[in-house]
From TrEMBL:
<feature type="transmembrane region" description="Helical">
    <location>
        <begin position="30"/>
        <end position="48"/>
    </location>
</feature>
<dbReference type="InterPro" id="IPR049458">
    <property type="entry name" value="EpsG-like"/>
</dbReference>
<feature type="transmembrane region" description="Helical">
    <location>
        <begin position="297"/>
        <end position="314"/>
    </location>
</feature>
<feature type="transmembrane region" description="Helical">
    <location>
        <begin position="6"/>
        <end position="23"/>
    </location>
</feature>
<feature type="transmembrane region" description="Helical">
    <location>
        <begin position="123"/>
        <end position="143"/>
    </location>
</feature>
<feature type="transmembrane region" description="Helical">
    <location>
        <begin position="163"/>
        <end position="187"/>
    </location>
</feature>
<keyword id="KW-1133">Transmembrane helix</keyword>
<feature type="transmembrane region" description="Helical">
    <location>
        <begin position="326"/>
        <end position="346"/>
    </location>
</feature>
<feature type="transmembrane region" description="Helical">
    <location>
        <begin position="96"/>
        <end position="116"/>
    </location>
</feature>
<feature type="transmembrane region" description="Helical">
    <location>
        <begin position="271"/>
        <end position="291"/>
    </location>
</feature>
<dbReference type="Pfam" id="PF14897">
    <property type="entry name" value="EpsG"/>
</dbReference>
<feature type="transmembrane region" description="Helical">
    <location>
        <begin position="199"/>
        <end position="225"/>
    </location>
</feature>
<feature type="transmembrane region" description="Helical">
    <location>
        <begin position="237"/>
        <end position="259"/>
    </location>
</feature>
<keyword id="KW-0472">Membrane</keyword>
<protein>
    <recommendedName>
        <fullName>EpsG family protein</fullName>
    </recommendedName>
</protein>
<keyword id="KW-0812">Transmembrane</keyword>
Amino acid sequence: MNILGINLILFLLLSFFLLGIIKSKVTKKLFVILITIQFVILNGLRSYNVGVDTIRYEKSFLEVLNFNAIEDFLTSEIDFGYRVFLEFMTIFTDDFNMYLLIFAILTFALFGIIIYKYSKSIFLSYILFIGLGFFDHSFNIARQTLSIIIVLYSFKFIISRNFLKFLIVVCIAIVFHTAAFIFLPAYFIAQMKWSKTKIIIITIICTLISIFSKQIGKLLTFIYYDDAEAMINQYESAGSIGGLAVFIIVLLFIGLFIRNPIKHDDFQNRALFNIMVISLLIQLMSSFSYLFSRLNLFYLVFVIYYIPYLLYILDKGPIKFKTKELIVVRLIAKFIITLVLILYYLNLIKINGPGILPYTFFWE
C-alpha cells in the first residue's frame, strides 16, 4: 500500500475513534490536531522529488535567497506578493526543506482551525478535502492550496456582510496566488436572490457554455495568459463535460430539494448554493482546458462547507423525520458520501496523483 492509502486509513481510524466512539469536544480538538500533524508530516517532510512543481518552488526559494541587491528583487519574474513572502521567509531559514515544513504548518494549521470553527461536520469536511484531491494538490500547487484555504476563511465575512474584511482576506490570498482574484465577485454573487427567471437564465448559460466551451475557453485564456498558446497546448482537456461537473450538478439538485433558495430566505444556504453555481459554470469550461479546473478550485472548495450544511439543515427539508429517523438518515448519507469519495480517491491515486508517488522523505 502506498503512502496516500496509509494516510487515508489513518484518517478513517482516527475519525472512527475520536469522532465516532468517544465523541466529545476534547476529542474533536484532538482529532483536528492529530490530522493536522499527519498532513504536515507528509507534506512538509517530503523530498524535492515529490510533487511535480516542488523543484520549481525550490528554484524560486533559492533565487530569492541569493538576491544581492534591490534590483534583483524588483526585476525577478516571481509573483510580487509571493516574492515578498519568500524574502520574509529567508530571514528565518536558508534551508528549502525547513521552508516546506513551515509552509505546510501554515497551510494545514489554518485549514484545521477553519474547519473546527465553521464546518457543520469536521469529518465530512476532511474526507471531502482528501477525497476530492485537495490534499494531493497541496504537494503540487502549494501556493494555490494555501490561497484557497485563505479564501475559504473569507466566507465568514460574506455571511456577516462585511465587505472590507472580505476584501482584505481575499487580497491576502492573492499575495500567495494571483488567481485568487477570481473569487472577488463571490461577495456580490452570494447576495443574489433567486427567481424562476434567474434559474432559467443560468440553465441557458450552462447549456451555451457546454456547447461553446472551446471558443469561450480559448478567448478567456488569451485574455488572462500572456503565453496563451503554450498554456492551451499544455493543459488542453479531452472535451467531455467531466465527472466533477456532473457531481456539482447533482449536488445543486439535492440542494434545491433540501432547501430551495427561491422559497426559503436562508442566507447561508443561498450563499453556498450561489457559489456552487459559479463553480459549475467554471468547471464546464474545463472541457476545453484543465486550467479552468484549477481556477475552479477557489469555488469548488466550498463544497467542504456546503455538503455538511445540507445534512445539518436536513430537518428543515420537505421530508419530515422523527429525531431517531433523522439520525439514521444522516448516518446513511455520511456513509454513502464517504464510500463514494473513498472509491473516487483510490481511483485517483492509481494514476500517481499529482506526481506524489513513489513518495520519499527529504532525508531518503
